[in-house]
Amino acid sequence: MTSPSEPPFEGVRVRANARSGLVRYVPGESPADVAREAGLTPADVAKLSSNENPYGPSPRVLAALREAVGDPEVLLRYPDGASRSLRAALARRHGVAPSWIFVGAGLEDVLQAIAARFLEPGAAAVMSRPSFAMYPILTRLFGATAVEVPVQEGRHDLAALAEGVLRNEDVRLVWLDVPDNPLGTTVDPAALEAFVAELPDRVLLVYDEAYAEYVAPGAAPSGVELARRRPNVLALRTFSKAYGLAGLRVGYAVGHPELVELLEEARRPFNLSALAQRAAEAALEDEAHVLEVVRRTRAARKRLARELRELGYPVLPSETNFVFVPWATEEARRLLASSECPAGSLPGKAREIAIGEAHVRLKRAGVVVRPFPPLGLRISVGTEADVDRVLSAFRALRDGEGTPQGGAPTN
Ligand SMILES: Cc1ncc(COP(=O)(O)O)c(C=O)c1O
C-alpha cells in the first residue's frame, strides 16, 4: 500500500543485471496467515513448509539464552565480531583449527559471502535443478550465469554436472546440496569422489550438507571430511535443522584456511548476534538432544513415507527431515521416476488436480506443505501428530473429499 505522502519513485540506478527484476526467495507461509485464510486457529495448522525441527533446541540452549538476556552487558555491547568462542567449539567438534571455520547468520549468510567473493558478471555457477532455491538467485544477484543441470531419477546427475563444469571455462563454483533440497535424496559416495577428482582445482565445490545430522551413517559422503582433504571444497552446516535454532540464524562453513580468509573479506563485521553465538555453543554441548531429535524425526519420516505409499502416492527416498511427493506431470516422470519411486502416477482423485490446487486444499485442511511446480510437493516431517494430519489430508485428496465436487466441507 502506498501512503498518500509518498513521492513518485523516479528509479535510482541499479546493477545492470537487476534492471529486469530478480527472482526473490519465497519463504514458507506462516501458520497465522494460513489459519486466517482457512478459518482455523493457528494451533490447528501444521507448518510443514520450511523443514524446521518441531522439537526445538536443547534445554541447555534455553538456559544459556535466559542467562544471556538477564545480563545487560551481553545486550548493550557489540558481540565478538569474529565469533571466536563458537568457532573454537566448532573446530574442536570437527577436529580442525579455528582458521578452518567460517560462521554466518544462517547458511543464507554464508552462501551470500561465497557468492560475493567468487561470482561476478562473466562468471558462471553450476547447480542441479531442482536444488536449494537460493543458488540460482544468488548467482544472478551477483551478475553471474546460472547453469542448471536437471536431476536424473530424482538425484543429482553428477556426470552431467561435471560436463557442465568442464565445458565452460567461466565456471567458478558448483553449488551442490547433499541431501538435495527439495528432493531429500543423496549421492553415491564413490560417484561423488569421482566427481571431485574430475573437478579442476580452480573450481570451488560448495558442498551444502544442511541436513547432515539426519543422514544415516554411510548414506551420503561427509562434506567436512572432503573439505579436509581438498582445498577447493567448502562444507556447509547449519543450526537451523537438527539443532532447532532456525529463528536465531547460525550456519557455518568448514574449509581450507585460505578459502575461509577469502570469505572473511566479504563478511559483515558483527554478523552473529551475541545470543546466536551463545545459543549455538550451548547446542553443541548437548549432542544427546540432537541424536534424540534425529531418532524421532527418522521414525516419523519412515511412517509418513510408508503410509503415503500405502495410500498410493509415490515418495522419493529421503535422508532428511522432509519427504517429496512427485506429482503426475511429464516433468516429474522425466526427472524423478526410478526403480525406487514410480513418479508420474497418483491415486484416485488426486490425479485430477494440479500441484497448486493440491497445495491450496491441503492448506484448507490445516496442512501447509511447499509446492514445487511442475515436480511435486515437499512435506516437512514434523511430529507424529503432524504425520497423522498429513496422512488424513492426503487421504482426503485421494478420495476427493473437501472438494467443491465432493461436497464435503473444506474446513
Ligand atoms: C540445502 C539448504 N541450504 C541452506 C539452507 C539455509 O539454511 P539456514 O537456515 O542456515 O540459512 C537451507 C534451508 O532450508 C537448505 O535446505
From TrEMBL:
Domain of life: Bacteria
Reactions this protein catalyses: L-histidinol phosphate + 2-oxoglutarate = 3-(imidazol-4-yl)-2-oxopropyl phosphate + L-glutamate
EC primary class: transferase
Organism of provenance: Brockia lithotrophica
Membrane-spanning parts: none
Pfam family, one: Aminotran_1_2
PROSITE patterns the UniProt entry points to: AA_TRANSFER_CLASS_2
Domain Aminotransferase class I/classII large residue range list: 44-393
Keywords of this entry: Amino-acid biosynthesis, Aminotransferase, Histidine biosynthesis, Pyridoxal phosphate, Transferase
Protein name: Histidinol-phosphate aminotransferase
Residues bearing the modification N6-(pyridoxal phosphate)lysine: K241
One Gene Ontology term of the molecular function aspect: histidinol-phosphate transaminase activity
Gene of this entry: hisC
InterPro entries named in the record: Aminotrans_II_pyridoxalP_BS (IPR001917), Aminotransferase_I/II_large (IPR004839), HisP_aminotrans (IPR005861), HistidinolP_aminotransfase (IPR050106), PyrdxlP-dep_Trfase (IPR015424), PyrdxlP-dep_Trfase_major (IPR015421), PyrdxlP-dep_Trfase_small (IPR015422)
Gene3D superfamilies linked: Aspartate Aminotransferase, domain 1, Type I PLP-dependent aspartate aminotransferase-like (Major domain)
Gene Ontology biological process terms in this record: L-histidine biosynthetic process
UniProt similarity note: Belongs to the class-II pyridoxal-phosphate-dependent aminotransferase family. Histidinol-phosphate aminotransferase subfamily.
Enzyme Commission numbers on file: 2.6.1.9
Subunit-structure text: Homodimer.
